[in-house]
Amino acid sequence: MNPDARAGKHVARRRFGQNFLVAVGVVERIVAAIQPRPGENIVEIGPGLGALTRPLLERLGHLHVIEIDRDLIARLREHHAPGCLTIHEGDALEFDFGALCARDNPSLRVVGNLPYNISTPLLFHLAGFASRLRDGHFMLQKEVVMRMVAAPGTAEYGRLSVMLQYRFHMERLFDVPPGAFRPAPKVTSSIVRMTPLPAETHHAHDETRFARIVAAAFAQRRKTLRNTLRDFLDENALEALGFDPGLRGERLSVADFVTIANACQ
């Protein structure tokens, strides 16, 4: 039997991508970065064993959490009064974050140590609520964070970079070593801050088309725009917009992709 199970401790479940933060110093740095204030509307994704939950509650007075593991939910209910902690049982990938935006306090803050196995789809899901968010502070695999904050022309820049930077200002804050977790993952993690951009910063007339163009541009990274975007614009149209058809998608900024999308009919 696993020693943690004999001791009555929660055993991390691989299917939920569980790695629990245990380093007190790291928790303090994360809370300092979030700067939670009493009365703020904050939801924590995947509270786990409560490493962040406890200090957040001390500063807020009330906190929403989203948890899928029933054993962890039972622990949370055992250690926290319902009036302080509102537990939403279920999958964060299907959660309606807009439902937490009350009329008198519409600006939602989201925090969490995101499971590695669902981090990218969860980020895309959260992006759909960008207009209702004040900010987000997340811990993810460092490799993913580097892609999130990447600039055009770099190896890490890709679809994730463009789609998130279309809606958010991205800021990598600091790294977290594997030893800060139990069990220790095989990768380094990073803390990232995501702050929604004003609606007028980037405006694609058809955001579905914009997403399709971005996906096409990075589907085969070695191919040039004349090939990847030929279903949307031909070479002459690209040149008329000021783009070299011989460029690859990684050379285009978010604004460039918006320009191309808006030129399509």
Strand order of the largest sheet: 4-3-2-5-6-9-7
Q: How much is the radius of gyration in Å?
A: 21 Å
SSE sequence, one letter per element: HEHEHEHEEHEHHEEEHHHH
Distance between the termini: 62 Å
Strand content: 15-25%
Question: Per the principal axes of the C-alpha atoms, what is the gross shape?
Answer: elongated
How many β-strand runs? 9
Average pLDDT, rounded to a whole number, is 90
Helix content range = 25-40%
What is the subunit arrangement here? single chain
Largest sheet: 7 strands, mixed
Total number of helical segments? 11
Q: Poorly predicted ranges (pLDDT <50, ≥5 residues)?
A: 1-8, 10-17
* Structural class by secondary-structure content: alpha/beta
